[in-house]
Amino acid sequence: MLIIFNPFAGRRRIALLWRVLDMLMHNGVKLEVVETEHPGHAIELAREAAREGRGMVVAAGGDGTIAEVANGLIGSTTALGVIPLGTANVLAKEYGLPSSPRAVANMLAYKRVRPLWPGVAKLPERDHVFVQMAGFGFDGAVVHGLPPLLKRAIGRGAYVWQCLWESLAYNFPTVRLAIDGKPYEAASVVVSKGRLYGGAYMLAPEARSDAPGFQVVLFERPGTFSALLSGAALPLGVLPRCPGVRILPASHVEFPGNARIWAQCDGDALDGLPFAVTNAEAPISLITG
Predict the structure, then answer these.
(1) Among 82, 209, 238, 285, which is least packed by CB within 10 angstroms?
(2) pLDDT tens, position by position, 197-213
(3) Number of other residues whose CB lies within 10 A of the CB of residue 69
(4) What is the layout of strands, in order, in the sheet containing 182-186?
(5) What is the fold of 2-111?
(6) How many helices and strands in the chain, by DSSP H and E?
(7) Of the candidates 122, 92, 61, which has an alpha carbon nearest to the alpha carbon of residue 270?
(8) What is the spatial distance between Cα 127 and Cα 256, in angstroms, rounded to a whole number?
(9) Check whether domain 122-283 has CATH 2.40.50.140, yes or no
């Protein structure tokens, strides 16, 4: 079993990882642990493991690490395992994956699977696979502006702080997009594979992580008040019903004619705005226990 670990997770999460590893080794599971050294390294490691014909690669980290490993496994028969060590662990919550060391070890040992159908943000020079969501506009600006040290120090509280700051500092340029060929405009956009956002908070109730297609969440009203209203509605579970929020199904999303718009995928900042978001060609087998 190859485990790809993001060391940026921090000391507390390293301790959780080692408890899982101890239980796996106690049950006779042969392990190889590799630490990532730079952004994109997990993609390289997972791709090489898939070429070698490994049966499973485990992502030990947050949603960004999981997405990188998924990127490397696309098109292969290698299954994806998860040890959730991230700030929000949205994908783990989406699939109901366990978080206690013993339950995680049991899940990886039993190897029961469900399909995970990623999305692909298509950039001019490369494709970026995402497993939960891609955000454009205000959502992307929050991720781009988030200080890594603040995120490491206070976890999800750092996103709350950055949302408050960006609600005042961001100028809300219009995001132009086409959903299955039909044009729309919004102040901010989230293209969601899953139902949840930022943790266990409901964003797109009709989304399906295990099938092709997306739910596109349009935040149509710009400005500080609308951003703060959406932020307050999210933990209350009523964001999909907020004024100015529209949710549409999609199989293909394009972003024509935009100026500089911030973008992110699974909590990782993107360099530039994708020209399209599409389905991956095939699903990945996700270990769910």
Answers:
(1) 238
(2) 988 999 999 999 999 99
(3) 32
(4) 127-130, 119-122, 276-279, 253-254, 175-179, 182-186
(5) Rossmann fold (3.40.50)
(6) 9, 20
(7) 122
(8) 17
(9) no
